[in-house]
Design a protein that fits this description.
By secondary structure, the protein is α+β, with helices and mostly antiparallel strands. It is built from one helix and 14 strands, in the order H-E-E-E-E-E-E-E-E-E-E-E-E-E-E. The longest helix is centred in the N-terminal third of the chain and has 35 residues. The structure holds FE2/S2 (inorganic) cluster. FE2/S2 (inorganic) cluster binds next to loops.
Length: about 240
């Protein structure tokens, strides 16, 4: 073997090493990019049953007067951390809680329906819904609700991003688009003996931006049996 062919072999070897190193670097960058775009799979295998807490104690009916307004919205995370939900005590006239009946809710995008639970609590007027807009995912305080001004002007949820509106007294059905999906319903349970409220499940469309309600986020710390209700200013 001549010197020329030895040099040629070395060059080829070096070229191969450069290609492998560059490939590894690109693969490393791509891995980071992919990890950022698609977070590691996390979540839950079933809906947890959690007691609603407010200011460190189980939430009571008196903590959620009808149509809490004054620039505030009442929220809690469920089923995972950073999955905000509205908590509302529906009223038709700004004073008297109004019972919410269970009902079939229409999904404009599919033409299908699903069963939304009725209200719970002493007046069957307390309801909860995902607070992530089903159009493009805007969150509170950009999506928020207005108190009823009169029987003819009931409480409604409005997203300032593009103007979608939802009716929380009718399963958060779509009033006006551009959204084509109602807000997912968050199922509550009321214990008349203790006066406590629990959140137990969800139904309806999947939370916006998720493959399933139970994935794509961080569960509450292991063993935690409650989720905190917070009050956020609409002015943000
Ligand atoms: S994100 Fe709410 S209307 Fe578009």
């Amino acid at each position: 073997m001549g010197e020329e062919s030895i040099d040629s072999g070395k060059r080829n070897f070096l070229k191969a090493m450069v290609v492998i190193s560059a490939g590894a670097a690109v693969a490393g960058v791509l891995k980071g990019v992919v990890q950022n775009i698609i977070p590691p799979s996390s979540g839950l295998t079933s809906f947890p049953e959690l007691t609603l807490f407010f200011n460190g104690n189980p939430l009571k009916y008196s903590d959620i007067p009808p149509n809490v307004t004054g620039g505030n919205i009442v929220l809690f995370d469920y089923p995972l951390q950073s999955d905000p939900n509205f908590l509302l005590n529906i009223s038709n006239d700004n004073k008297t809680p109004a019972p919410v009946e269970p009902m079939s809710v229409f999904i404009p995008a599919t033409g299908g329906t699903y069963e939304s639970p009725g209200g719970v609590g002493p007046d069957n007027s307390v309801v909860a819904f995902s607070a992530i807009c089903q159009h493009l995912g805007c969150v509170p305080p950009i999506i928020h609700y207005y108190a009823a001004g009169s029987p003819a002007f009931p409480t409604y949820i409005h997203c300032d991003c593009h103007g979608s509106t939802y009716d929380p007294s009718k399963g958060a059905k779509v009033i006006t688009g551009p959204t084509t999906h109602p807000l997912p319903a968050t199922i509550l349970k009321y214990d008349a003996v203790t006066g406590n409220f629990k959140v137990v499940s969800m139904t309806g469309p999947t939370i916006y931006g998720k493959i399933s309600d139970l994935t794509g986020g961080t569960p509450l710390p292991e063993g935690q049996t409650y989720t905190d209700v917070t009050v956020e200013s609409i002015q943000g």
